[in-house]
Amino acid sequence: MSADEDRDATAATPPELETDRELVAIVAVADNGVIGKDGDMPWHIPADLEHFKETTMDHPVIMGRVTYEGILETLGEPLPGRTTVVLTSRNLETPEGAVVAHGLADALEAAETAAREHHDGADRVFVAGGATVYEQLLPAVDRLIVTEVHREPEGDTFFPDWDRETWTETARDEREGFTFAEYVRS
Ligand SMILES: NC(=O)c1ccc[n+]([C@@H]2O[C@H](COP(=O)([O-])OP(=O)(O)OC[C@H]3O[C@@H](n4cnc5c(N)ncnc54)[C@H](OP(=O)(O)O)[C@@H]3O)[C@@H](O)[C@H]2O)c1
Fold first, then answer.
1. CATH number for the domain including 160?
2. In a domain, 69, yes or no
3. Contact (CB, 8 A) for 58 and 123
4. Which of 21, 75, 150, 176 lies at 20 to 30 Å from 119 by C-alpha?
C-alpha cells in the first residue's frame, strides 16, 4: 500500500497483501485506545505476556522496528521459539530468529517462508504491532486477538480505529482488569 493512499483500515484485503495463511493481529489495547508509551507498553500484565507467548509460539510474527528493538532491550534476543519478521527501511543486522523485511509484501513472503521452513507449515502469521504496522496490515487481517485492558493510561501510541460492525466477536474471557477477546471478519 502506498503511504499516501487513503484506505479504510477495515476494507477488503489489497491483492498485494493476500496470503495463504490466516493473518492474525494480536494486541493489548486500553479502553482509551493506548497501546504504547515511550517505546514500551504502559502496563505490566504477566497473564497477558503469557497469553501472547502461548498464542504466538512456533509461528512467524511480523512487527515494526521500534517494537522489535523494545523486545531486544527487554529480552536481550528476539522472541524465542518464533521467527520475528522486522519491518524496517534500515539495513539492520539481525540475530538468529529474526529476519528483516523492507516492505509489507516482503514481510508476508518472509513470514510464509518461515512458516514453511521453521514452523512445520504453521497456518497462522501474527501481526504484533506497533501502531504503524497494525495500521498498514489491518486491511489484510483475518482475525483480531485483543486483550482489552480496562484502564485509561497516558500514552503516545494508539491502535488504529476499526469498524466493529464489520467484525464478529468469537471469544470473550473476562479477567481481573482485562478481557481476552477475539474477532473475525463478519
Ligand atoms: N500493546 C501492544 O499490544 C503493543 C504491541 C506492539 C507494540 N506496542 C507499542 O507500540 C509502540 C511502537 O509502535 P510504533 O508504531 O511507534 O512503531 P513500530 O510500528 O513498532 O515501528 C515503526 C517502524 O517500523 C518500520 N516500518 C513500518 N512499516 C514499514 C514498511 N511498510 N516498510 C518498512 N519499514 C516499515 C519503520 O522502521 P524504520 O524507521 O527502521 O524504517 C518504522 O519507523 C511501542 O510503545 C510498543 O511498546 C504495543
1. 3.40.430.10
2. yes
3. no
4. 75
**What's the gap in Å between 79 CA and the centre of ligand 1?**
16
Sheet holding 98-101, edge to edge: 98-101, 83-87, 60-64, 124-127, 22-30, 143-149, 178-185, 167-174
Express each pLDDT in 70-89 by its tens digit: 999 999 999 999 999 999 99
Query: What is the per-residue pLDDT for 1?
Result: 39
The pLDDT > 70 percentage for the chain reads 94
Confidence band of 113 (pLDDT split at 50, 70, 90): very high
Does residue 2 sit within a domain?
Answer: no
Q: Whose CA is nearest to atom 44 of ligand 1?
A: 39
pLDDT in tens, 8-26: 455 567 888 889 899 999 9
Domain-located, residue 1: no
Q: Which atom of ligand 1 is nearest to the CA of 104?
A: 31
CA of 83 from ligand 1 middle (Å) equals 17
Which residue spans within 72-177 are E strands per DSSP? 83-87, 98-101, 124-127, 143-149, 157-158, 167-174
Number of domains in the chain: 1
Q: Indicate whether residue 35 lines ligand 1 (CB < 6 A).
A: yes
Ligand 1 close to Cβ of residue 85 (< 6 A): no
The answer to whether residue 6 sits within a structural domain is no
